[in-house]
Automatic annotation (TrEMBL), chain B:
Protein name per Swiss-Prot or TrEMBL: Sugar ABC transporter permease
Residue ranges occupied by any ABC transmembrane type-1 domain in the UniProt entry: 75-301
InterPro entries referenced in this protein's UniProt entry, alphabetically: ABC_transporter_permease, MetI-like, MetI-like_sf
Gene Ontology cellular-component terms listed: plasma membrane
UniProt membrane topology term: Multi-pass membrane protein
Keywords: Cell membrane, Membrane, Transmembrane, Transmembrane helix, Transport
Organism of provenance: Streptomyces griseoruber
Pfam family, one: BPD_transp_1
Stretches that traverse the bilayer: 21-44, 79-101, 113-133, 164-187, 208-230, 280-301
Length: 449, 313
């Protein structure tokens, strides 16, 4: 006795297979190009602004920012749409239409290269010129860099993030360390002093150097070494730039000196997550932390039983004169090429990104770093005295960022992959690995162009 | 006159047939034919989603197969899940189904207990498993260490991440258990009685009575399992993210299959290429590879000789 599988069922199974597999491809393959328009900004009109903020205090801050604009420009009303992810923004920039945004803001700084090169966001240089604003003297140097791609300024910084060093002052005192380290040599010595082993784990770890230690990513380490990433022709320099090698070797040395990759990873896997109250710096499990300006508020909110210190991240021993710099990134804003109200949209973008009081008010509410040089110096800024460290890092002309690329942050992913292999010991020949990474980065960029 | 009338009747009949078929035809055209043709078309185009597509020949295909570093690891992982995970799920589902049909009391309770995990949302289930299997603080490893059994790194160890995923998929085997139970209960009792009278052992009864009767259901379980494994996206992604500790919101950089690409699957690449790298052409290439693989597996399983469907079925 045998069961029967009729022909029709067999065919149905084929059709089911084909349909389900193709659903994936359907989502990947639609869209169209964009176009621009001219308009009269003095007319009564409504523009649409999409942003990604979602927390209640952030949404409230955006509302206040927009209210300030509408007060200054009574003829332009703003339809605000929050919590918009990158996918939705990209789709809207592609499709356009009456409900599409005129102005967008995104947390993904890495997408600036694609936004500019594709023309999805318009070049704002003519608008800046028309308004008599010089972006070079308005925005901090690093923020100025990450908002343009090959001289096309399709984005504007809308608050920023600066990375520095958080340290447990109480643990420092116990270990006999009087001040935060200024060079990586000092840092390494302090990290070792602060590390208290306990069996095959740690009672207290001086610093979690692993690339999965939340913000200890390759680009954040490398930012302290001022890498170039690309030459003038757009080719990757990671194989020839000593800054990249130095940063990778420093991290590897920290990993080896603080217990080795396996031990550190096992310890890390048991730690709290980055955004929760059990973050290991906040619980005292880790004495030093590379992190952004937001950590201060988050850490203070958990009322830790130690005093928190904040300082710039150390620099290479031969760059001691550049102590005070840091890695910078941040939110960007831009005008959609599909917008029919680009002049009105510019009035809005100009207000929220260059009006000192508007930027200061928004920064005070969101607790991000202001994105203009004037706002960074404004007496109206309210902050914990320790937050000043991040304001100084943002204003520091030696501070660095990762440049925009045509395919987003793919080159950073490639470098990060190399970092994972190197820290774990799977890659032993760093020079060969970097050459391979540089070739991969160039191939990926060629594919994207 | 008669010919004309006949022609008119045939035309009307054809139109009527077409009208009845139209819902399916429209659905087929919109949801199958158009995406299929578009996917093939875009796989030969350079398209970033913003500028109009331009012809690029086989560049995307060459890039995916020769230069995209994540393609081969993702393919290997996907095939691993298809072969190992689907096989184990079918065997486990069948085993549990047989056990529950055999027990005399508490059938309802056991059936509910085994079915409930299937209802757990994939993200929540994966996060719970990542917590249970955390190598540093998870209860599973605590127990293993106390009993002297070497504790694996589970989602943090490239050698154990796929077995950990498989374990999780076995936990949620309730769907297969239910259909196998229905199939097993549907096997005519007289066939077992006849086999017993002929002196067939338990294994022979299973081999020559149970298996032939439930083979269409096994076929269904395997084909749908293969398709599900090909589409496996959420669980490996969440497991990798949770285990890596890097759970970020917007602007997250793509981390391919932590640890060491071991949880990377082909659908993740479609998303990465299309929506993070803006390379829709290459994303379409990966989608077509998935399609071809699904078809190949289905054809292999359904072939008349050597497949799960035997000649005469």
């Amino acid at each position: 006795m045998s069961a029967r599988m009729p022909e029709v069922v067999r065919k149905a199974a084929f059709a089911l297979t084909a349909s389900t597999a193709l659903l994936l491809s359907t989502t990947a393959c639609t869209g169209q190009a964009a176009s621009g328009a001219s308009d009269d900004a003095s007319k009564e009109q409504t523009i649409t602004f999409w942003h990604a903020w979602s927390a209640p205090n952030e949404v409230k801050a955006v509302k206040a920012l927009v209210a300030g604009f509408e007060k200054a420009h009574p003829n332009i009303h703003v339809n605000v749409v929050g919590n918009m992810t990158d996918d939705k923004i990209n789709q809207a920039l592609r499709a356009g239409g009456s409900k599409a945004p005129d102005v967008i803001s995104s947390f993904t700084t890495n997408n600036v290269g694609k936004f500019c090169s594709s023309g999805a966001l318009i070049d704002l240089n003519p608008f800046f010129k028309k308004s008599g604003i010089d972006p070079n003297t308005t925005f901090p140097k690093a923020m100025n860099e990450y908002t343009q791609y090959q001289l096309d300024r399709c984005a504007v910084p809308l608050l920023g993030d600066a990375y520095g060093l958080y340290y447990n002052k109480t643990a420092f005192e116990k270990a006999g360390i009087s001040s935060p380290p200024k060079t990586w040599s000092e840092f390494e010595a302090d990290a070792k002093k602060l590390t208290i082993p306990q069996g095959d784990t740690y009672k207290q770890l001086g610093f979690m150097p692993d690339y999965h230690g939340w913000e200890t990513t390759t680009e954040h380490y490398m930012g302290q070494f001022s890498p170039t990433y690309f030459d003038k022709s757009g080719k990757s320099t990671v194989a020839t730039d000593p800054a990249v090698t130095d940063a990778l070797e420093l991290q590897k040395k920290l990993v080896d000196d603080l217990g080795g990759f396996t031990k550190l990873e096992k310890f890390r896997s048991g730690l709290g997550d980055e955004w929760g109250p059990k973050h290991p710096f906040q619980t005292g499990q880790v004495a030093m932390q590379l992190d952004g300006e937001w950590r201060l508020g988050m850490a203070l909110a958990t009322k830790p039983d130690f005093e928190i210190g904040v300082a710039p991240l150390p620099v290479a021993d031969d760059q001691a004169d550049q102590y005070g710099k840091g890695y910078i990134t941040g939110t960007i804003a831009g005008i959609a090429a599909t917008s029919k109200k680009q002049n009105a949209a510019w009035e809005f973008v100009k207000y929220v990104t260059t009006d000192t009081d508007a930027v200061v008010g928004f920064s005070n509410a969101i607790h991000n770093v202001p994105s203009t040089l004037d706002a960074l110096k404004s007496p109206k800024l309210t902050y914990d005295p320790r937050f000043k460290t991040f304001l100084d890092i943002a204003a520091n002309p030696n501070s660095t960022t990762s440049p925009a690329s045509v395919n987003g942050g793919v080159y950073l992913t490639t470098l990060q992959q190399l970092g994972y292999d190197y820290e774990s010991g799977r890659l032993t020949d760093l020079s060969a690995g970097l050459k391979k990474a540089a070739a991969q980065i160039d191939t990926d960029i060629a594919q994207a162009k | 006159m008669t010919t004309l009338t006949l022609r008119t009747k045939r035309r009307r009949s054809a139109l009527r047939t077409l009208a009845f078929l139209s819902p399916w035809l429209i659905g087929f055209a919109v949801f199958f034919a158009y995406p299929m043709i578009s996917t093939v078309y875009f796989s030969f185009m350079h398209y970033d989603g913003f500028k109009p597509p331009t012809w690029s020949g086989t560049k995307n295909w060459t890039y995916v197969f020769e230069s995209y570093p994540f393609f081969w690891p993702a393919l290997r992982n996907t095939l691993w899940l298809v072969v190992i995970m689907v096989t184990l799920r079918v065997l486990f589902g069948l085993g549990i189904g047989m056990l529950i049909t055999k027990i005399k009391t508490g059938t309802g309770v056991f059936r509910t207990l085994f079915y409930l995990p299937y209802l757990a949302p994939p993200v929540a289930a994966t996060m719970a498993f990542a917590f249970l299997l955390n190598p540093g603080t998870g209860p599973v490893n605590s127990i293993l260490e106390k009993t002297g059994i070497p504790a694996p790194g589970w989602f943090n160890d490239p050698d154990w991440s796929k077995p950990a995923l498989t374990l999780m998929f076995l936990w949620g085997v309730g769907d297969l258990m239910v259909i196998f139970m229905a199939a097993l209960l549907d096997v005519p009792k007289e066939q077992y009685e006849a086999a017993e009278l002929d002196g067939a052992s338990a294994w022979q009864r299973f081999r020559f009575v149970t298996l032939p009767n439930i083979s269409p259901i096994i076929m269904f379980a395997v084909v749908t399992g293969v398709i599900a494994a090909m589409q496996c996206y959420t669980q490996p992604l969440v497991a990798g993210k949770v285990a890596s500790g890097v759970i970020q919101g917007a602007g997250t950089m793509f981390e391919p299959g932590y640890p060491e690409h071991s949880t990377l699957t082909l659908p993740q690449l479609v998303y990465n290429l299309g929506f993070q790298r803006f390379d829709y052409g290459s994303a379409c290439v990966v989608a077509l590879v998935l399609f071809a693989l699904s078809m190949a597996f289905t054809a292999l399983l359904m072939r008349r000789r050597g497949g799960l469907i035997q000649a005469g079925d």
